[in-house]
Amino acid sequence: MHLRRFVLGMAMGLVFGGFAVAWPELQAQTAAQTAKPAEPSEPPMEPAAEEKPLPKLEEMQVPDVTTLLQGKPLCWVVTIKDEVIVSEPVKPRPFTKVAMEQLITDWPKG
């Protein structure tokens, strides 16, 4: 019984003793934070720019040959609403594996 009280007393002393030692540091940190003028950590957010609607597929012009061969590669991703998202090349291309497997099965057997 005395051993339990001793161990419990030591544990309480360590916990609260450590808290008592750390308490002045916490007070100093709090005082330092309240003494500083409030500076915004991030600049205020700008209002969101109005987003332009995506172009429709019918409105898009097909690039000429020189643009396709010499220009930056681009992908047209067409949504189910026939809107076009022009982006960097999409990899892997959709249905590539299926198309390649179909070509292999359709290959004439020698």
Description:
It is built from 3 helices and 2 strands. The termini are far apart. The mean pLDDT is 75. The chain has a two-stranded antiparallel ribbon with strand order 1-2. The protein is elongated. The chain folds into 2 domains: 34 residues; 50 residues, no CATH class. The chain has 110 residues and is mainly alpha-helical.
Percentage of residues in DSSP E strands: 5-15%
Mean pLDDT: 75
Shape: elongated
Could you name the ranges where pLDDT drops below 50 across 5 or more consecutive residues? Answer: none
End-to-end Cα distance: 93 Å
Order of helices and strands: HHEEH
Number of domains: 2
The number of strands is: 2
**Sequence of strands across the biggest β-sheet:** 1-2
Major beta sheet, specifics? 2 strands, antiparallel
| Structural class by helix and strand composition | mainly alpha
Helix content: 40-55%
Task: Throw out a few tags for this protein.
single chain, 110 residues, mainly alpha, two-stranded antiparallel ribbon, 3 helices, 2 strands
